[in-house]
Amino acid sequence: MKLIPLLLAALPALATPVLAQTPAAPRVAPDQIATKNGPLTVQPITHGSVVLSWNRKTIYVDPYGGAEGYAGLAAPDVVLITDIHPDHLDPKTLAGLAVGKALLVVPPAVAEKLPAEYKKQVRVLRNGQKLDTLGLNITAIPMYNLPEAPDAMHTKGRGNGYVLGLGGKNVYLSGDTEDTPEMRALKNIDVAFLCMNLPYTMDVQQAAQGVLAFKPGIVYPYHYRGQNGLSDVEAFQKTVNAGDKKIDVRLRNWYAGAK
Length: 259
What we know:
The protein is α/β, with parallel strands linked by helices and 259 residues long. It has one domain (31-249): Metallo-beta-lactamase, Chain A (4-Layer Sandwich), CATH 3.60.15.10. 21% of the residues lie in helices and 28% in strands. It is built from six helices and 16 strands. The protein has helices at 3-19, 91-95, 108-113, 181-184, 204-214, 233-243; strands at residues 31-33, 40-46, 49-54, 57-61, 78-80, 103-106, 122-124, 130-133, 136-143, 159-166, 169-173, 191-195, 218-222, 225-226, 229-230, 248-249. The strands form three sheets. Strands 1-2-3-4-5-6-7 form a seven-stranded mixed β-sheet. The chain is globular and about 45 Å long.
């Protein structure tokens, strides 16, 4: 008779390894931005990674950090990759995601490094080239370090920032860049995602002055962790709004699941 209670007590311990699953990484709540064709949903993932959902289309930008960060999200219709560095081109994360039916939009340098199984899904865009697909307009924007140098971490022409046109809105994704003339010359940007981490991209002042030059309606500082820790996003917000109170600087925790 004493065996039954002992067996029952052991059941939870026996069952735990079978039922255990990898938990989804913590995520901040998504934002919604109105467009002519319904809301644009902005879901921060981590670092330079974001998921955009609009008009029953899902766009993954630089999927990175593990597939668990995308748990519960719709499979992508389009994947945008900006550069060859592992926080942008992450084959391990790609392999864990349902990207089999997605169009991968990439610069030539990324196309050369993608695993062979993705080659048929790739559309290569060079700086300045455009693509219309699935109701989206995609324009590749130069992203690079200043001053230009052959040994720079990001040389001109290798990577792409992107401007997406959707539902009457223009969305800028900076990739890894400094406040280049091409970025400063952008027009009619409704939503911008702007990198801000040393020594790879911009410091707070560079990023703020770049934003004040092209004046997006909304700006999200992202990709703001570097060798020196986290960039001061609150100082960025203060500097931008001191120059232009109309710019909506949205601070979100892009490192909610980071260790």
